[in-house]
């Protein structure tokens, strides 16, 4: 009902009610519902007001002035219902303006939605006779169906079927018993809240919408504050997501905003081509992901799409609110038919005793994620340290433990723990093949997340990705750990200083890292590598869109943050040595001058996504491409350069690979020297000062006067030397005694014996970023961080759900879960309107998506087994000759067809699509450097190039973000 006033009303004698006061009618009705005491009411006619509402409910006369007044007010309210123009969903969703009949219909799933015929416009003011003359059809809850009938629901909750063969004025109104909508527990996280928690959440929403400032510099909420139809929770009508970053598949460059680009569907994914790649590619086709695409078939688009936050309508008050504000999980909204109650109506229901909040177990949260030995260790240590810190803070402030605030409701979980293999790059391997350098390294990738319950919602605040190269891995990665990526969002509560003087947030993150190093040391790992490298502008590491208030630290600030943490770990004897990559691997003789180990690139740690492997490969390629070369067998000047470099690093090997090794180390040293302190090497066990091996068994021969240690092997060699050549070499007249310390407590195996935790959403860092970007899971405001974390937990607990909601190719709207025709990317409405006559199959409900928790486990395993069988058959068919196996014969026929098919390039051949998909799957899983399967190496190189933009900084290194 619109805000307004009613003049003096005089009722007829039959109703015996009159007043001469001027009323603000909406306030009167709010006043009546709240049950304010009439004696304290600001309206003089309060005692006469209740009969007005009762009169409208009981009056049978359509001519009554009171009934007409109330009815007209309701009609005005329906006329001014907000027109929603966005759909929250997958990447590339289009903005569509549609009338109220096209909003989210709240009909039972057995009714198929169809488009409203243009000649059958239903007036919002139409009165419908059903049991009593005041029953109305609400257009927001009805839809036009075949044969000019309107299936709808009246304001009082009754359902009806309206026949409109002769027009709406002569419609026949027949009562229809529509099935009750299904109750869906957890469709909104609000269902778990108490009324006080809901009120706190609503108060928080109004603060969050003004946190994010767009490029205009004006708060986004202020621009929309004068809108006529705002969200009833946050008070803002239109909120836009951050634009999705689009990258060019061939070159990996970012496609700038408001520029044109081209797109093509290759196999099962859509790829993008920038203008530069399109223009500089000769001919009529362009190769994308190993597949030639005709330029004429490419779709030209403009990178100017801005997605708007989705809306949801309450089934009680029929008002609209943002899905993010209402903590609405559209994935649980099965077919769009689940009941939804807005926070305001939910509070009223709970306070009237009509419902009670759901148990926390109704929606699985962070605590319900699988526990591991690592997560248990991190949690126990974190809680212990937080308790000690709180006790110390209370003692210093002269208060009791309960009087000082502390961090509560924290949950640490390992959400991914899988075994992987890292293949050594081709040119690097060829350079060091003679010294038995391994062809690949086995490691375990883990993802650790920290959650904190804020205002009733578990928000993901911190994440780190680590690589563990265990005891079964060869040198130089033997028993090493790589801290690959770290990221956080600044919503930690409470925002106070710890007793150590740092923020409590920093204290918690430090303890998680120290706890991880402690756990690694107990398992037998010897060192950890960290790179203090903040992200460049516009890049994200783990979380999509950080808060505006959160500043990115500079290199020296981030390095200081790490060093402070490591100094704490050193006090607990977790870290025994702290050095950097340059001092440990690039200085001949070491810092002390007593190193006797060869300086070579073969000793450098080789980690996935790190700076060194990529830079080394580029440098080797550059050395081979230089004119005149730097090889030993060419010009005299190059021989002199090579000889000097060999002498500098203490080598006398004049072979070609040895020269290449020395020059590679020289170039790498020049590259990292300006920021050598950012490449941090953390030793969890003592290293030998001669051979630099980290000691895990035997004795440590330690000097009683200085920081000098030897392993058993080097100690024996030391005793064979003359006294003047022994330690200390710089002071031959002094005598330093070495005494043995037995190494104990280091297990032979580094395995943690935890179960494998595979997650397709955390298979790589880029996979999770793509999930967040495609579904607009942003962390730029607390309200979005709540919703994004809720959806993250939903995906973790339901790994079989699709990562993205499919979008209808006809109308551009999302295809609701379990509805539509996913094979042809059509929603129910478009299928019934345009697609049914053009399709040979009937529309069916996709039950495999509706109940992913109870189904699909066996089906998924069967699909995986079938895929593996086909891949093995593909490799077999390409190798064997005269095989009697009929399956092999069929596969050979398909391969031959693929090679000769004339329609393959157009993408119309079904058989070629299947073979192409098998080639691509093989390329993704193949670990061989020389594979005989066609397109295998080409596909791998193109995949690496297409993803290279997210793994490179200005010099090609990986990134990592810790907000201080």
TrEMBL record:
<dbReference type="InterPro" id="IPR013178">
    <property type="entry name" value="Histone_AcTrfase_Rtt109/CBP"/>
</dbReference>
<protein>
    <recommendedName>
        <fullName>histone acetyltransferase</fullName>
        <ecNumber>2.3.1.48</ecNumber>
    </recommendedName>
</protein>
<dbReference type="GO" id="GO:0031490">
    <property type="term" value="F:chromatin DNA binding"/>
</dbReference>
<feature type="domain" description="CBP/p300-type HAT">
    <location>
        <begin position="363"/>
        <end position="801"/>
    </location>
</feature>
<keyword id="KW-0010">Activator</keyword>
<dbReference type="InterPro" id="IPR011011">
    <property type="entry name" value="Znf_FYVE_PHD"/>
</dbReference>
<keyword id="KW-0808">Transferase</keyword>
<feature type="domain" description="ZZ-type">
    <location>
        <begin position="683"/>
        <end position="746"/>
    </location>
</feature>
<dbReference type="Pfam" id="PF08214">
    <property type="entry name" value="HAT_KAT11"/>
</dbReference>
<dbReference type="GO" id="GO:0003713">
    <property type="term" value="F:transcription coactivator activity"/>
</dbReference>
<dbReference type="InterPro" id="IPR035898">
    <property type="entry name" value="TAZ_dom_sf"/>
</dbReference>
<dbReference type="GO" id="GO:0004402">
    <property type="term" value="F:histone acetyltransferase activity"/>
</dbReference>
<dbReference type="Pfam" id="PF00628">
    <property type="entry name" value="PHD"/>
</dbReference>
<dbReference type="InterPro" id="IPR031162">
    <property type="entry name" value="CBP_P300_HAT"/>
</dbReference>
<comment type="function">
    <text>Acetyltransferase enzyme. Acetylates histones, giving a specific tag for transcriptional activation.</text>
</comment>
<keyword id="KW-0012">Acyltransferase</keyword>
<keyword id="KW-0156">Chromatin regulator</keyword>
<dbReference type="Pfam" id="PF02135">
    <property type="entry name" value="zf-TAZ"/>
</dbReference>
<feature type="domain" description="TAZ-type">
    <location>
        <begin position="853"/>
        <end position="939"/>
    </location>
</feature>
<keyword id="KW-0863">Zinc-finger</keyword>
<keyword id="KW-0539">Nucleus</keyword>
<dbReference type="GO" id="GO:0045944">
    <property type="term" value="P:positive regulation of transcription by RNA polymerase II"/>
</dbReference>
<dbReference type="InterPro" id="IPR000433">
    <property type="entry name" value="Znf_ZZ"/>
</dbReference>
<dbReference type="InterPro" id="IPR013083">
    <property type="entry name" value="Znf_RING/FYVE/PHD"/>
</dbReference>
<dbReference type="GO" id="GO:0005667">
    <property type="term" value="C:transcription regulator complex"/>
</dbReference>
<dbReference type="InterPro" id="IPR019787">
    <property type="entry name" value="Znf_PHD-finger"/>
</dbReference>
<dbReference type="GO" id="GO:0000123">
    <property type="term" value="C:histone acetyltransferase complex"/>
</dbReference>
<keyword id="KW-0479">Metal-binding</keyword>
<dbReference type="InterPro" id="IPR000197">
    <property type="entry name" value="Znf_TAZ"/>
</dbReference>
<dbReference type="GO" id="GO:0005634">
    <property type="term" value="C:nucleus"/>
</dbReference>
<keyword id="KW-0804">Transcription</keyword>
<keyword id="KW-0805">Transcription regulation</keyword>
<keyword id="KW-0862">Zinc</keyword>
<dbReference type="GO" id="GO:0008270">
    <property type="term" value="F:zinc ion binding"/>
</dbReference>
């Amino acid at each position: 009902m619109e805000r307004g006033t009613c003049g003096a009303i005089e009722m007829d004698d039959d109703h015996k009610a009159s007043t001469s006061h001027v009323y603000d009618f909406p306030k009167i009705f709010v006043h009546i519902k709240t049950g304010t005491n009439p004696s304290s009411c600001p309206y003089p006619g309060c005692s006469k007001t209740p009969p007005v509402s009762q009169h409208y409910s009981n009056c049978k006369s359509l001519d009554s002035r009171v009934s007409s007044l109330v009815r007209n007010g309701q009609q005005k309210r329906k006329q001014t219902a907000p027109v929603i123009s966005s759909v929250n969903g997958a990447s590339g969703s289009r903005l569509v303006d549609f009338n109220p009949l096209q909003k989210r219909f709240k009909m039972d799933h057995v009714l198929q939605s169809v488009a409203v015929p243009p000649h059958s416009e239903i007036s919002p003011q139409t009165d419908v006779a059903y049991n009593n003359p005041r029953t109305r059809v609400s257009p927001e809850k009805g839809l036009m169906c075949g044969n000019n009938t309107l299936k709808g629901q009246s304001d009082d909750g009754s359902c009806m079927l309206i026949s409109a063969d002769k027009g709406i004025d002569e419609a026949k109104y027949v009562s229809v018993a529509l099935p009750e909508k299904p109750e869906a527990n957890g469709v909104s996280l609000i269902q778990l809240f108490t009324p006080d928690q809901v009120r706190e959440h609503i108060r928080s929403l109004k603060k969050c919408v003004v946190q994010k400032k767009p490029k205009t510099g004006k708060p986004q909420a202020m621009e929309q504050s004068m809108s006529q139809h705002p969200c009833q929770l946050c008070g803002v009508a239109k909120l836009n997501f951050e634009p999705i970053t689009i990258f060019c598949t061939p070159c990996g460059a970012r496609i700038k905003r408001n520029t044109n680009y081209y797109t093509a569907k290759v196999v099962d994914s859509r790829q993008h081509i920038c203008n530069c790649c399109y223009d500089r590619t000769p001919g009529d086709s362009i190769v994308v992901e190993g597949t030639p695409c005709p330029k004429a078939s490419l779709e030209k688009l403009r990178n100017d799409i801005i997605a708007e936050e989705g809306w949801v309508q309450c089934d009680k008050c029929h008002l609209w609110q943002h899905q993010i504000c209402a903590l609405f999980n559209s994935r649980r909204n099965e077919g769009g038919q689940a009941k939804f109650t807005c926070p305001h109506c939910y509070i009223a229901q709970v306070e009237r005793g009509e419902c009670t909040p759901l148990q926390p177990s109704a929606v699985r949260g962070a605590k319900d994620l699988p526990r591991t030995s690592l997560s248990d260790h991190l949690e126990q240590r974190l809680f212990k340290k937080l308790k000690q810190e709180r006790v110390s803070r209370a003692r210093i402030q002269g208060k009791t433990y309960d009087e000082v605030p502390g961090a509560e409701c924290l949950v640490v979980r390992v959400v991914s723990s899988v075994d992987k293999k890292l293949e050594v790059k081709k040119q690097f391997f060829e350079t060091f093949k003679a010294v038995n350098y391994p062809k690949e390294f086995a490691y375990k990738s883990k993802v650790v997340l920290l959650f904190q319950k804020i205002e009733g919602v578990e928000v993901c605040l911190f994440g780190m990705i680590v690589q563990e190269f265990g005891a079964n891995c060869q040198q130089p990665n033997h028993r090493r750990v790589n801290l690959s990526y770290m990221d956080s969002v600044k919503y930690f509560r409470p925002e106070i200083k710890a007793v150590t003087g740092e923020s409590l947030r920093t204290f918690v993150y430090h303890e998680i890292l120290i706890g991880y190093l402690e756990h690694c040391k107990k398992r037998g790992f010897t060192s950890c590598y960290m790179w203090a490298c903040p992200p460049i502008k516009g890049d994200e590491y783990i979380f999509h869109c950080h808060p505006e208030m959160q500043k990115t630290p500079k290199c020296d600030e981030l390095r200081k943050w790490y060093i402070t943490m490591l100094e704490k770990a050193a006090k607990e004897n977790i870290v025994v040595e702290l050095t950097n990559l340059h001092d440990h691997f690039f200085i001949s003789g070491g810092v002390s001058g007593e190193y006797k180990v060869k300086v070579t690139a073969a000793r450098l740690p080789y980690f996935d996504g790190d700076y060194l492997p990529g830079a080394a490969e580029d440098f080797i390629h550059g050395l081979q491409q230089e004119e005149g070369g730097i090889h030993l067998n060419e010009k005299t000047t190059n021989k002199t350069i090579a000889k000097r470099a060999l002498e500098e690093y203490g080598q006398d090997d004049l072979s070609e690979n040895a020269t290449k090794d020395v020059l590679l180390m020289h170039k790498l040293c020049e590259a990292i020297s300006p920021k050598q302190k950012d490449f941090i090497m953390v030793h969890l066990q003592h290293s030998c000062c001669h051979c630099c091996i980290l000691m895990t068994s035997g004795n440590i021969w330690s000097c009683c006067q200085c920081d000098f240690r030897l392993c058993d092997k080097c100690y024996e060699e030391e005793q064979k030397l003359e006294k003047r050549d022994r330690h200390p070499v710089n002071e031959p007249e002094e005598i330093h005694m070495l005494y043995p310390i037995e190494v104990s407590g280091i297990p032979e195996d580094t395995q943690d014996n935890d179960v494998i935790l595979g997650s397709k959403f955390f298979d790589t860092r880029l996979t999770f970023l793509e999930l967040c970007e495609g579904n607009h899971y942003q962390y730029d405001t607390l309200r979005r961080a709540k919703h994004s974390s809720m959806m993250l937990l939903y995906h973790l607990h339901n790994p079989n759900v699709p990562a993205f909601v499919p979008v209808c190719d006809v109308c551009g709207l999302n295809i609701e879960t379990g509805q539509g025709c996913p094979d042809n990317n059509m929603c129910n409405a478009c299928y019934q309107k345009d697609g049914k006559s053009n399709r040979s199959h009937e529309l069916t409900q996709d039950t495999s998506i509706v109940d992913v928790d109870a189904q699909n486990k066996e089906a998924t395993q069967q699909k995986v087994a079938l895929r593996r069988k086909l891949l093995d058959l593909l490799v077999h068919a390409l190798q064997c000759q005269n095989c009697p196996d009929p399956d092999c014969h069929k596969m050979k026929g398909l391969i031959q067809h693929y090679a000769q098919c004339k329609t393959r390039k157009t993408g119309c051949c079904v058989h070629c699509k299947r073979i192409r998909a098998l080639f691509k799957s093989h390329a993704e899983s193949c670990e061989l450097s020389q594979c005989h399967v066609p397109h295998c190496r080409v596909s791998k190189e193109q995949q690496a190039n297409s993803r290279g933009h997210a793994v490179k900084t200005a010099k090609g290194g990986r990134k990592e973000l810790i907000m201080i």
